[in-house]
Amino acid sequence: MRSINVTMSVTLDGVVQGLGRPDEDTRGGFAHGGWGTRYQDDVMAREMGRGMSRPGDMLFGRRTWQDFTTAWSRRDDGNPFTTHLNAATKYVASTTLDDAGAWQNSVLLRGDAADTVAELKAGPGEDLSVIGSASLVRALHAAGLVDRYTLLIHPLTLGTGARLFGDAPLTEFVLGSCVTTTKGVVIAHYDRRV
Description:
Blueprint: E1 4-11, H1 42-53, E2 57-61, H2 62-72, H3 80-87, E3 90-94, E4 106-110, H4 113-122, E5 128-131, H5 134-142, E6 148-154, E7 173-180, E8 186-192
């Protein structure tokens, strides 16, 4: 059985929307896009590089997959993140996409995300990593499918924006390890308590 590992940047008040750039996700009038970029440093790059160095497949929701396709699929820059993202098998859970041919090694999972991912998880293969994809993560969490979270907890509050968990069911996790960056971001690894 595969495990599902989620990596998510989050503010102190739980916001996960629009981390990377002002126009990334303006749903609901969200005006704080790009909030995470000023917190990047060498410690964060090293920690994220460790995660990317492990073999495995990736799992995306439709919106994040489309965004990553635009940002990463055409790059050929020698960046280890680019190499990993383009080489990995990328599963995209969607009820609206017709196909996943826009990015190499992408496989469309049609239907209910929790059901299709549960089936994928139960089968053979590499572990699955999720980066972003908050709606998908909420559905997988509610279904008890997430095994590990790597949360990049940023030292700010936004007051508005989509939150990570919403009305999530009671689930306990155990802190595996923790690193603090030079800019105050806490990178915490939590494993689901069984």
